[in-house]
Design brief:
With about 170 residues, the chain is α/β, with parallel strands linked by helices. It has a domain at about 65-165: Nucleotidyltransferase, domain 5. Helix content is about 35%, strand content about 15%. Strands 3-2-1-4-5 form a five-stranded mixed beta sheet, with helices on both faces. It is elongated, with a radius of gyration of 34 Å. The termini are far apart.
Length: about 170
């Protein structure tokens, strides 16, 4: 409860005695709590944004090496990519950084080259190494989404891919 006190005035004229004024703020506090509760319940919070992920129903069919791009994620925000298989890559393995859109440029150019030569869309396999961080996987998936790649997978890194990373000093 709140009170508002006023002092008595004394002057040369006849003294006027003033009574103290009491203002009861209990209803105001109740109203404030009701408003806070209403806005907490009525306000929609920001919805988390997630990238849609479609899992295959059955075992994947055979994919040609000519349409498969492999991205091996190494340390220090570096990625090694090549077209084909690790045994005998169709393109020379190249090291790119996430800065300056290096990975995005490689994905887009390789996708165009694959479509031009085979007439099919490209399949991308992302292989994170033990030295890569989770942010690298998220960045690689974002780059695939930006480049509009329809088929991609995340797989365990093979010893041959690890050897390629060691050869390019990204292990």
């Amino acid at each position: 409860m709140a009170e508002l006190n006023t002092s008595e005035k004394t002057g040369s004229r006849s003294p006027l005695k003033r009574l103290s004024v009491r203002v009861d703020l209990t209803a105001m506090v109740d109203l404030a709590f009701l408003l806070i509760t209403f806005f907490m319940l009525a306000t929609s919070l920001a919805k988390p944004k997630a990238m849609p992920l479609t899992m295959p129903v059955g075992p994947p069919g055979p994919v040609s090496e000519k349409t498969t791009m492999t991205i091996c994620l190494g340390k220090n925000n570096q990625a090694l990519w090549y077209l084909g298989m690790a045994d005998k890559p169709l393109s020379a393995p190249q090291m790119v950084n996430y800065s300056n859109n290096g990975l995005r440029r490689a994905i887009i150019e390789t996708g165009k080259a694959v479509f031009k030569t085979t007439g099919k869309s490209m399949m991308v396999i992302v292989k994170p190494s033990a030295h890569s961080v989770y942010a690298n996987v998220v960045a690689a998936l974002d780059e695939l989404n930006i480049a509009n790649v329809q088929s991609y997978a995340i797989a365990n890194i093979s010893p041959k891919d690890t050897d390629l990373l060691k050869l390019h000093r990204a292990w």
